[in-house]
Amino acid sequence: MNKQELLHKWMNDELTGAEQSALREDPEMRAMMEIAAQTRSMEAPEFPKDAVWKNIQQLNKPTKVRTLQPLKYMVRIAAVFAIVAFSYVFWQGLDTDINTAVAEKTEITLPDQSQVALNADSFLTYNEQDWKDARTLHLDGEAYFKVAKGSAFVVETDLGDVTVLGTQFNVFARENLLKVSCFEGVVSVSLDQEVITLKAGEALELETGSAVKNLTTSLSTPRWLQDESSFNNAPLAEVLNELEHYYNIQLEVSDIDLQKRFTGSFTHQDLDIALQSICNPLQMTYSVLDQNKVVLNEAK
Amino acid sequence: MAIKNSEEEPNVCEERTYNALYNAHGQALWNFAYYKCGNSDDASDLVQEAFVKLWNNCGKVSFAKARSFLYTVTNNSFLNAVAHKKVVLNYRNMQSSGVDKQSPEFLLEEKEYGKKLNAALNTLTEAQRTAFLMNRIDGKKYKQIAEELEISVKAVEKRISQALVSLKKNLEGFNK
After folding, report:
1. Taking CB atoms and an 8 Å limit, are A39 and B161 in contact across chains?
2. Which of A43, A45, A149, B77 could form a disulfide with A166 if both were Cys (CB 3.0 to 4.6 A apart)?
3. How far does the CA of residue A154 sit from the closest CA of chain B (Å)?
4. What radius of gyration, in Å, describes the C-alpha atoms of chain A?
5. Which residues, other chains included, contact A16 with Cβ-Cβ below 8 Å and sequence gap of 6+?
């Protein structure tokens, strides 16, 4: 260990008495040790501890208050937003929602005296305040409209908008299926790609991913208004789906081909009759278990 | 059973903790500032500023880091003030070159030797003097000085060696 290192050890009080004496033999080291020892007995001037602490507290006070202010400020901003939001709701009015449960049907009169019959398990939304400016409503489900003459009347669905001036028409919009039937006047259906015009007695059917089917109807009002659902060469899956909207049941099918075609109708009034009307022509049997379970089987 | 491996750290934002930090480090920090600038009022200002900054940043500075935060802030404020002062000094020096440099006064019993030692300490660079006096007057070990100055122990050794060599040269003939 060289002398410099020993000197540093001594400065850190890590040297034994013998080592110190050895180090003192070197005149240069001894001179430095003298100086260091002399400096050891020096003092810095007195630290005005209390005065400085007083100043610190003085300086800290206003900053402490300031740290609280952003919160107050935010509360004020939030209050302004709340007032604006409330007045908007009062001014605009809330949307009117009409919801039918399974097996429930309802009739509504819109602010312009247009009539809507809402089929089971359907959801309709419109804004009463905005109605005189824009006759627009959103439909998820099925409804029949008798529209009073006036400006454009728009039914928005997930697959496309149905626009009319004054007419009677039915819109079916469930999941990925849209069916529009026109019973009076002219209906225009705007889809993603095209606009289709339907005259009285015409109908269309659109399934996501497939082409639009043009159909006709000889009826004067949709069948469901007479508590009946009717089908023309429809897949069994669609028929059973529809059945579940009118009866609170859970269908179980085991070995049945759901692509089987069904033409006919079923009533919304009596589950047994309805099941017979579906099962008999397709050679199926059914059994109603408790807890609203219905099992369908191929007839033996 | 959950094992608690360390006690929860005190929060610097708590008045009690903050006050305790002042009691623990105020004196040494003030000395540190005094070795640097050689003026009691300036040292007080630097300590004040450092503690106010600690309060304003109390949410960001952990209790363990508080000491080194105080020393860093004091050092930075000192450097800012000195950078400003240097301009003033240079300007003054151009007019009259015989003006005294800033001179820390240290209390020493033996008057004659004390005056000479004082003068010799004033000729050290700020870095040498601070490290040397932190060891001599505050009795801090090199390791602690290194932490507070945020330099290596080797650098502390170097500064103190330089200080001793320079002091020895300046006090030549005075020592027996």
Report:
1. no
2. A149
3. 58
4. 43
5. none
